Amino acid sequence: MPHRMTAQPLDRAPDDALMSRIAAGDQDAFTELFRRRRNEVYRVALLMTGGAAVAEDIAQDVFLAVMRDAGRYEAGRSTVTAWLCGIARNHARRRLDQDGRIVRLAEGDEPGQREPAVQRDLVAEIAAAQHVDALRRAILKLPVRYREVVVLCDLQELSYADAAAALDCAVGTVRSRLHRARALLTAKMRDANSVRRSMIKGCLA
Amino acid sequence: MISDEYQQSIRELARAATMPDAMAERMEAELQRAFGTAGAASERSPGVRWLVALAAAAAVIIAVSAAVWFTRQPVTPHNVTAGPDAGTTDPAGPKAGTTHAAALKAGPTDTGGATNAAIAPRLPRRASRNTLPPVIRPAGFVPVPAAAALPRFESGVIVRVALPVTALPSYGIDISPASSGQPVEADVLLGQDGLARAIRLVNTSRSQQ
Question: Which pTM was predicted?
């Protein structure tokens, strides 16, 4: 496979340049982009759908789409990350529609029964993990239109403009949905904390 | 609105929701295989794309040239018969422009005035090509000198045109020095490539009218 435009090292090349090189058939550029952005793509898929296996499928589909459609990326319209997240979001929504909007992790499963998407020492950080787990469940229980703005803006830290490009909607829509989503999350977390406190009280009684 | 606890939890969740290494390695290997498979095709694709683009451009140029050429012809082929009496079966001898307009109005694809002006002239012409008789009798035609160097005549159409008298020698027809500069009507036999193969004068006296 001949590599063109090798003036800039791959590891220092911006995402836009990698996309151009991928469009020209540069496999090394593709590998670099995959290594650089795989977690963002996977995160969107995982937190949108709640299933590691589904998220893996979606992430793979996203990078296959990059392989096929890199030439269609418009640099001035959004960042590469936003473009990738937009593709991941579209795939996730399609999967949710196909699966009847069933969110696997959000429906009463216990932490010990899940696939280990988190690779870390849970024993040392059990308290924080419980809170994080509660937050993940709360996010997964949000309506999809709110869930995706939380995933893109809060978890991926995309700008409102990039999130709007990824979601193909107005910036104002992103703002209002995010405001509403955070309010819903706060309420859900408050409920989850009160349930946990009452459970602890019940155990101590 | 955003509490510190929320932000910290969000950061924790984002950090936790990363692709496991085993999954990443597996996926990278699969994607590289897929890229390698598609690579050969994509490596050829720029050249193929250029060829396709060139072919498309050539087709467009040919189509536009043909359209311009046809629309500039004063007479539609279906008003011209291939027989020897072609020039006498049309006693009214309408001017080329009016004949063309009449043919358009009578065309089967006429949309009652809504037809695009650029497209409309070609529509009856296509229909008339389809309805041409399989055998024509080009009696009375004089071969055009330049036709000797052209590919063998296989099929074609006869179109009636108005030519200036001074142009006739280039078609192999001698004229007298005293000829007027007024146009004369002639039937031109066009081959399958659109190039003139033969010509005949329709009716000199009527053409002068």
Answer: 0.51
